[in-house]
Amino acid sequence: MTDNQLTVGVLGTGIMGAAMARNLARAGHTVRAWNRTRAKAEPLAADGIQVADTPAEAVGTADVVLTMLHDGPVTLETMRQAAPALRPGTVWAQSTTAGLDGVTELAAFAREHGLVFYDAPVLGTRQPAEAGQLTVLAAGPAEGRDTVTPVFDAVGARTVWTGDDGAEAGATRLKLVVNSWVLAATSAVGEALALAEVLDVDPDGFFDLIAGGPLDMGYLHAKAGLIRSGQLSPAQFAVTTAAKDARLIVRAGDRHGARLDVAAASAERLERAAAQGHGDEDMAAAYYASFPDRADRADRTA
């Protein structure tokens, strides 16, 4: 094993975590992966990844622990389960969008157990994750960066360092700002298409009108394409996860004196779409929240 080859314990193998684990293995690292539902992790064995039965088994002897779980509380509970096998000095890169309070709690856990903590949320969805093209927003101490950098290099195309304090240096703060824009744009796409439908406006007329101008953008066409084709599964970024992030954004704004009405409305739309049965679909499925029924869903996506 060369100096750059590590043993990495990956906790959480959903849309993002599974892709990150595969890219770590392709980069030559030894990877042990755990997921609460083992069946979701088992396909990773075909990539040479060891599938663990418990979080503790996954992190035992690991140089780096990478967590990519649903939220802060789930991450904290999982790390508590892993605690008996954690060694002081182990590097922990947490890539969950955990929110401000969540990151503070995770950093406190790291201090209690002598872990070298990096807050490292990522920008990107399923496709860039599978291609190893994520952007890693990282904050944490300089003395452990030589160890964690090969992990970031394996899962991402770019690492943006925001400071040397994993809890307070701004990685999660920057991620929340970026996601506030992503969620607002996604809601706007869905509402524009919904309004075009009920007003009997051909969406292509809208796209032609803005083409090439300052109102045009690739993201609009990407999300509109998913809605119009009905190709909302597999999700690039699921409705339920987006709803969680929207609530974290609203909470962060409230905590610091900013009322974020668009983020709050996006959270409500996403939660309504999840209640309609779209929770595991791409967040573009928030489009359906514009309609009180789902009876004519096939017509709407045609």
UniProtKB/TrEMBL annotation:
One family name in Pfam for this protein: NAD_binding_2
Keywords: NAD, Oxidoreductase
Domain of life: Bacteria
6-phosphogluconate dehydrogenase NADP-binding domain: residues covered: 7-163
Active site as annotated: 175
InterPro entries assigned: 6-PGluconate_DH-like_C_sf, 6PGD_dom2, 6PGDH_NADP-bd, HIBADH-like_NADP-bd, HIBADH-related, HIBADH-related_NP60_sf, NAD(P)-bd_dom_sf
Presence of the UniProt keyword Ribosomal protein in the record: no
Gene3D superfamilies in the record: N-(1-d-carboxylethyl)-l-norvaline Dehydrogenase, domain 2, NAD(P)-binding Rossmann-like Domain
GO MF term list: NAD binding; NADP binding; oxidoreductase activity
Protein family: Belongs to the HIBADH-related family.
Protein name: NAD(P)-dependent oxidoreductase
Gene source species: Streptomyces sp. SID14436
